[in-house]
Amino acid sequence: MEIELPWTEKYRPNRLSDVVGHERIVERLQAYVKQRNMPNMLFAGPPGIGKTVCAVALGKELFGDDFKRNFLELNASDERGIDIIRGKIKDFASSLAYGRSGFKIIFLDEADALTKDAQNALRRTMEKFAGTTRFILSCNYSGKIIEPIQSRCAVFRFKPLNKEQIIKRLQYIAEKEKLHVDKKAYEALVYVSEGDMRKAINFLQTASTTAKKITEAEIYKVATRAKPEEIKKMLSEAIKGKFEEARKQLDILLYEYGMSGEDVMAQIYSEINAMEIDAETKLRIIDKLGEYNFRISEGANERIQMEAFLAYLVLSSRH
Question: Taking the domain 228-317, which CATH number applies?
Answer without folding.
Answer: 1.20.272.10
